[in-house]
Amino acid sequence: MTKAEMTNSTTRGSDENLAPFDPLLDLAKAIAAADARVQEYGEKGTQARKIKDGVAETYLENAERHACDQYYSLREGLSCHEATTMEGAMIQVAEAYNLVDWLWDIVPEGDHDSEGKKIKRSIERLLISSLRMMERVAEKDLSSLGLACFRSAHLDPWEDVELRIAAVKKAL
Question: Which of 7, 33, 109, 116 is deepest in the core (most CB within 10 A)?
């Protein structure tokens, strides 16, 4: 596919004023919605457990599992599309950061040597640095796109730690 064909295939319609189409944006919004359902069902299930409503607890746990399955299935799709917008690239960089974290979680605890931890922190710094730059260039961040679930700002190595601590304490 030529560059012109790719450009034409990634725009909605033929109007040159329309923004490029990036399936990653729609996919990320579906992921954010699934994440919200997982959180909602989990909270409602906890409440049902507290008041000993076994019927509601059972149905809410089942709904939470289905929403969780959808959430993870949708996330797998993020690596199956080439980004065609800055926002799509931001989503993929944030997802790469998440995958590094998840990969680390599946490594047995005894295998977390100091060199591996150092490499993980280096990758995190590189990805977050890239994402922050993309956000500045795009003049928007993932939160402004309704996609805050893609980025854990509290773990941002470039954020002033004292400001982060104050913000977290204020939110409590």
Answer: 33
Task: Please indicate, yes or no, whether residues 39 and 93 belong to a single structural domain of this protein.
Answer: no
**d(Cα 57, Cα 146) in Å, to the nearest integer?**
29
Q: What is the pLDDT of residues 47-105, one digit of tens each?
A: 999 999 999 999 999 999 999 999 999 999 998 888 888 888 888 988 888 888 888 77
Q: Rounded to the nearest 5°, which phi and psi values hold at 11?
A: -110, 150
Q: Read out DSSP for 43-75?
A: HHHHHHHHTT-HHHHHHHHHHHHHHHHHHHHHH
Instruction: Please report whether residue 123 resides in a domain.
Output: yes
Q: Are residues 138 and 154 in the same domain?
A: yes
| 72 lies in the same domain as 104 | no
Tens digits of residue pLDDT in 112-170: 677 777 887 888 888 888 888 888 888 888 777 777 777 666 677 778 888 888 888 88
CA 7 to chain centre: 26
Q: DSSP secondary structure string, 15-35?
A: -TTSPBP-HHHHHHHHHHHHH
